[in-house]
Design brief:
alpha+beta; Protein Transport Mog1p, Chain A; 2 domains; Lipoprotein
Protein backbone atom coordinates (compact mmCIF):
# COMPACT_ATOMS: atom_id res chain seq x y z
CA UNK A 1 0.00 0.00 0.00
CA UNK A 2 2.77 2.44 0.99
CA UNK A 3 4.73 1.52 -2.16
CA UNK A 4 1.69 2.36 -4.33
CA UNK A 5 1.21 5.71 -2.55
CA UNK A 6 4.89 6.62 -3.05
CA UNK A 7 4.70 5.62 -6.72
CA UNK A 8 1.58 7.80 -7.18
CA UNK A 9 3.27 10.79 -5.50
CA UNK A 10 6.33 10.37 -7.75
CA UNK A 11 4.19 10.32 -10.91
CA UNK A 12 2.26 13.41 -9.77
CA UNK A 13 5.52 15.27 -9.13
CA UNK A 14 6.90 14.30 -12.55
CA UNK A 15 3.71 15.35 -14.32
CA UNK A 16 3.48 18.67 -12.47
CA UNK A 17 6.87 19.89 -13.64
CA UNK A 18 9.19 18.70 -10.87
CA UNK A 19 12.61 17.97 -12.37
CA UNK A 20 13.62 14.63 -10.87
CA UNK A 21 17.20 14.93 -12.17
CA UNK A 22 18.43 18.28 -10.87
CA UNK A 23 21.84 18.23 -12.55
CA UNK A 24 21.54 19.34 -16.22
CA UNK A 25 25.05 17.98 -16.92
CA UNK A 26 23.56 14.47 -16.66
CA UNK A 27 21.70 15.02 -19.95
CA UNK A 28 22.44 15.81 -23.57
CA UNK A 29 20.38 17.35 -26.37
CA UNK A 30 19.45 15.14 -29.32
CA UNK A 31 18.44 16.92 -32.54
CA UNK A 32 16.10 14.93 -34.81
CA UNK A 33 15.68 17.82 -37.30
CA UNK A 34 11.95 18.26 -36.63
CA UNK A 35 12.26 18.17 -32.85
CA UNK A 36 14.82 18.16 -30.05
CA UNK A 37 14.81 16.21 -26.80
CA UNK A 38 17.03 16.12 -23.69
CA UNK A 39 17.97 12.59 -22.63
CA UNK A 40 20.45 10.96 -20.24
CA UNK A 41 24.01 11.09 -21.60
CA UNK A 42 24.23 7.31 -22.03
CA UNK A 43 21.24 7.17 -24.41
CA UNK A 44 22.06 7.03 -28.13
CA UNK A 45 20.31 8.47 -31.19
CA UNK A 46 19.49 5.92 -33.92
CA UNK A 47 18.25 6.94 -37.36
CA UNK A 48 15.75 4.77 -39.19
CA UNK A 49 14.16 5.06 -42.63
CA UNK A 50 10.38 5.26 -42.73
CA UNK A 51 8.12 4.89 -45.75
CA UNK A 52 5.29 7.30 -45.01
CA UNK A 53 6.50 9.00 -41.83
CA UNK A 54 9.61 10.18 -40.02
CA UNK A 55 10.74 7.47 -37.59
CA UNK A 56 13.69 6.80 -35.34
CA UNK A 57 14.87 5.37 -32.06
CA UNK A 58 16.79 6.31 -28.96
CA UNK A 59 18.78 3.43 -27.51
CA UNK A 60 18.50 3.24 -23.72
CA UNK A 61 20.60 0.12 -23.19
CA UNK A 62 21.32 -3.21 -24.89
CA UNK A 63 17.69 -4.37 -24.53
CA UNK A 64 15.55 -1.25 -24.63
CA UNK A 65 14.84 1.54 -27.09
CA UNK A 66 12.48 4.47 -27.31
CA UNK A 67 10.71 4.46 -30.69
CA UNK A 68 9.08 7.48 -32.31
CA UNK A 69 6.85 8.01 -35.33
CA UNK A 70 6.01 11.47 -36.70
CA UNK A 71 3.47 11.31 -39.51
CA UNK A 72 -0.13 10.92 -40.56
CA UNK A 73 -0.51 7.35 -39.27
CA UNK A 74 1.29 7.46 -35.92
CA UNK A 75 -0.03 4.97 -33.37
CA UNK A 76 -2.50 6.67 -31.01
CA UNK A 77 -1.62 4.23 -28.19
CA UNK A 78 -5.25 3.19 -27.78
CA UNK A 79 -5.04 0.10 -25.61
CA UNK A 80 -8.59 -1.01 -26.45
CA UNK A 81 -7.69 -1.22 -30.16
CA UNK A 82 -4.55 -3.31 -29.68
CA UNK A 83 -5.19 -5.79 -26.91
CA UNK A 84 -4.97 -9.55 -26.50
CA UNK A 85 -6.26 -9.96 -22.94
CA UNK A 86 -9.67 -8.47 -23.63
CA UNK A 87 -11.80 -7.19 -26.49
CA UNK A 88 -14.68 -4.79 -26.82
CA UNK A 89 -17.53 -5.76 -29.09
CA UNK A 90 -21.04 -4.30 -29.40
CA UNK A 91 -20.57 -2.29 -26.18
CA UNK A 92 -19.46 -5.30 -24.11
CA UNK A 93 -16.14 -6.42 -22.62
CA UNK A 94 -14.94 -9.98 -23.21
CA UNK A 95 -11.94 -11.46 -21.38
CA UNK A 96 -9.63 -13.90 -23.10
CA UNK A 97 -10.04 -17.42 -21.78
CA UNK A 98 -7.23 -19.93 -21.28
CA UNK A 99 -6.08 -21.26 -24.66
CA UNK A 100 -7.30 -24.62 -25.88
CA UNK A 101 -5.06 -26.76 -28.03
CA UNK A 102 -6.83 -27.81 -31.22
CA UNK A 103 -4.86 -29.96 -33.71
CA UNK A 104 -1.56 -28.87 -32.15
CA UNK A 105 -2.41 -25.14 -32.27
CA UNK A 106 -3.54 -22.85 -29.47
CA UNK A 107 -6.98 -21.35 -29.98
CA UNK A 108 -8.28 -18.53 -27.80
CA UNK A 109 -11.86 -17.91 -26.84
CA UNK A 110 -13.39 -14.96 -25.01
CA UNK A 111 -15.89 -14.88 -22.14
CA UNK A 112 -18.36 -12.09 -21.49
CA UNK A 113 -17.36 -9.89 -18.54
CA UNK A 114 -19.64 -6.85 -18.44
CA UNK A 115 -20.81 -3.81 -20.38
CA UNK A 116 -18.04 -1.50 -21.60
CA UNK A 117 -18.59 1.39 -19.19
CA UNK A 118 -15.63 3.59 -18.29
CA UNK A 119 -15.56 2.12 -14.76
CA UNK A 120 -15.48 -1.46 -16.09
CA UNK A 121 -12.81 -0.62 -18.68
CA UNK A 122 -10.57 0.82 -15.97
CA UNK A 123 -10.63 -2.59 -14.28
CA UNK A 124 -9.30 -4.45 -17.32
CA UNK A 125 -6.98 -1.86 -18.87
CA UNK A 126 -3.28 -2.33 -18.20
CA UNK A 127 -2.51 1.36 -18.75
CA UNK A 128 -3.47 4.68 -17.20
CA UNK A 129 -3.91 7.80 -19.30
CA UNK A 130 -2.97 11.32 -18.23
CA UNK A 131 -3.33 14.55 -20.21
CA UNK A 132 -0.35 16.91 -20.08
CA UNK A 133 1.05 19.82 -22.08
CA UNK A 134 4.30 19.42 -24.01
CA UNK A 135 5.66 22.42 -25.92
CA UNK A 136 2.15 23.88 -26.10
CA UNK A 137 0.52 20.68 -27.44
CA UNK A 138 -2.17 18.69 -25.66
CA UNK A 139 -0.48 15.34 -25.11
CA UNK A 140 -1.73 11.93 -24.06
CA UNK A 141 0.69 10.30 -21.61
CA UNK A 142 0.21 6.53 -21.33
CA UNK A 143 1.74 4.69 -18.37
CA UNK A 144 1.35 1.01 -17.66
CA UNK A 145 0.16 0.11 -14.19
CA UNK A 146 3.33 -2.00 -13.88
CA UNK A 147 6.30 -0.33 -15.57
CA UNK A 148 8.32 -3.53 -16.00
CA UNK A 149 5.55 -5.17 -18.05
CA UNK A 150 4.09 -2.38 -20.13
CA UNK A 151 4.29 0.86 -22.02
CA UNK A 152 5.54 4.35 -21.27
CA UNK A 153 4.54 6.63 -24.12
CA UNK A 154 3.08 9.85 -25.43
CA UNK A 155 0.82 10.72 -28.35
CA UNK A 156 0.06 14.12 -29.86
CA UNK A 157 -2.89 14.05 -32.24
CA UNK A 158 -2.09 17.19 -34.20
CA UNK A 159 1.30 18.83 -34.63
CA UNK A 160 0.98 20.37 -38.08
CA UNK A 161 -1.58 20.38 -40.84
CA UNK A 162 -0.48 18.37 -43.86
CA UNK A 163 -2.86 19.13 -46.71
CA UNK A 164 -6.19 17.50 -45.90
CA UNK A 165 -4.55 15.52 -43.12
CA UNK A 166 -2.35 16.32 -40.13
CA UNK A 167 0.92 15.13 -38.65
CA UNK A 168 0.72 13.18 -35.42
CA UNK A 169 3.50 12.19 -33.03
CA UNK A 170 4.03 9.07 -30.95
CA UNK A 171 7.03 8.18 -28.79
CA UNK A 172 7.10 5.11 -26.56
CA UNK A 173 9.09 2.36 -24.93
CA UNK A 174 8.29 -0.92 -23.18
CA UNK A 175 9.25 -2.83 -20.04
CA UNK A 176 11.28 -0.03 -18.45
CA UNK A 177 12.61 -0.03 -14.92
CA UNK A 178 11.16 2.59 -12.58
CA UNK A 179 14.33 4.71 -12.97
CA UNK A 180 14.22 4.47 -16.77
CA UNK A 181 10.55 5.40 -16.78
CA UNK A 182 11.24 8.51 -14.68
CA UNK A 183 14.05 9.50 -17.06
CA UNK A 184 11.83 9.00 -20.11
CA UNK A 185 9.00 11.09 -18.64
CA UNK A 186 11.51 13.89 -17.97
CA UNK A 187 12.75 13.54 -21.56
CA UNK A 188 9.17 13.75 -22.90
CA UNK A 189 8.70 17.05 -21.08
CA UNK A 190 11.83 18.51 -22.72
CA UNK A 191 10.53 17.97 -26.29
CA UNK A 192 10.59 21.02 -28.56
CA UNK A 193 9.08 20.80 -32.05
CA UNK A 194 10.79 22.86 -34.74
CA UNK A 195 9.20 22.53 -38.15
CA UNK A 196 6.93 20.31 -40.19
CA UNK A 197 8.53 17.58 -42.34
CA UNK A 198 8.71 18.35 -46.05
CA UNK A 199 6.20 16.43 -48.14
CA UNK A 200 7.21 14.70 -51.38
Amino acid sequence: MIKNILRFILIVLLLSGFNYRCNPSDTKLLDFEYFTINVPKAWEQIKLKGEDSYVGEIKIDADKVVYFDLGRYSNALNEDDDQEDYMIENGNIYLRDTPKVVKGKSAFSYKYLDTATEANLKKVRQNKIYWINIDGYKTKLVLSKQSSNGITGIYIDSLWNAGNSRDRFMMSSYRLTEAQREELISAFKSLKFCKAPKRK
